Structure formats: C-alpha cells, structure tokens
C-alpha cells in the first residue's frame, strides 16, 4: 500500500512540475504614449543659480546699513534665506536678512531684503 501511494505521489509531482515548465513568459506591456513623448522631449539646460549670490547680497545689505546710518553693532545676524517677496500676484525672489539685538527685546531687530533680480535693497519696518 505504501508503494502504491508513493508511486501515485511521484507521478502527480512529475505531472505538476512538467505542466509548469510549458508556460510562456508574459509579454511586457507597451510603454504608454506619454512615456514615449517624455523620453523624446529635448533636454533644456536649466541654471538654478541666482543672479545675485547670498554673499554679494549680504555685502549690499551691510553697505545699505552704513549708508542709512543703521548701527548694527549691538545686533547679530540671526537669519539669511531666500524668499519670494511682494503681493501674491507680483512676487519677486529676494534674499532676506534678519539681525536681532543682543538684549532680546521684542521688536528690536532689523530686517533687510535684497532683490535677486535688480539688486535693490530695502529695510522692512520693525515693530
């Protein structure tokens, strides 16, 4: 009885294994038209470097404070970052500099923006 069961088991395993070897691989789906179009698009050279560097903008902001006689000696530069300044419809890229007074009093700070496009410097009013 054991021999018969073993023989049936071996035959069923052979049949299953042979049945799976006859399967053909699934064909790869065609690339979509949009993917083909994206690949065919010409590459454009983009430069994300700003016209006015952060270092140059800081020099302009410091020379502005000297010209406007703003004493920055009790202040330290707290923050410098790239921002979009202006109304929602008319925003321009700018460098933003924020000097904070050492005493930590509220409203005792200096904020200056420098336009990346034109290099214009202006002071934002503080409290």
Brief summary of the model shown:
By secondary structure, this protein is an alpha+beta fold. Helices cover about 35% and strands about 30% of the residues. It has helices at about 1-20, 35-40, 55-65; strands spanning about 75-85, 90-100, 110-115, 120-125.
Can you describe this structure?
With 127 residues, this protein is an alpha+beta fold. The chain is 33% helix and 28% strand. It is built from 3 helices and 4 strands. It has helices at 2-21, 33-40, 54-67; strands spanning 75-87, 90-101, 109-115, 121-124. It has a 4-stranded antiparallel β-sheet with strand order 1-2-3-4, covered by helices on one side. It is elongated and about 105 Å long. The chain starts with a helix and ends with a strand. The relative contact order is 0.13.
Give me the secondary-structure topology:
Elements lengths: L1 H20 L11 H8 L13 H14 L7 E13 L2 E12 L7 E7 L5 E4 L3
Antiparallel strand pairs: 1-2, 2-3, 3-4
Proportion of residues in helical segments:
25-40%
Would you tell me the structural class of the helices and strands? alpha+beta
Largest sheet: 4 strands, antiparallel
- Inertia-based shape: elongated
Number of helices: 3
């Amino acid at each position: 009885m054991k021999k018969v069961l073993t023989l049936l088991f071996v035959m069923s395993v052979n049949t299953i294994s042979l049945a799976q070897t006859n399967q053909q691989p699934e064909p790869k789906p065609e690339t979509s038209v949009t993917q083909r179009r994206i690949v065919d698009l010409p590459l454009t050279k983009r430069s994300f470097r700003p016209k006015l560097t952060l270092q140059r903008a800081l020099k302009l902001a410091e020379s502005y404070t000297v010209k406007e006689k703003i004493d920055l000696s009790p202040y330290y530069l707290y923050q410098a970052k790239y921002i979009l300044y202006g109304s929602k419809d008319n925003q321009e890229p700018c460098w933003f500099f924020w000097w904070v007074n050492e005493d930590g009093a509220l409203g005792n700070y200096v904020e200056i923006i420098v336009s990346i496009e034109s290099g214009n410097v202006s002071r934002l009013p503080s409290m």
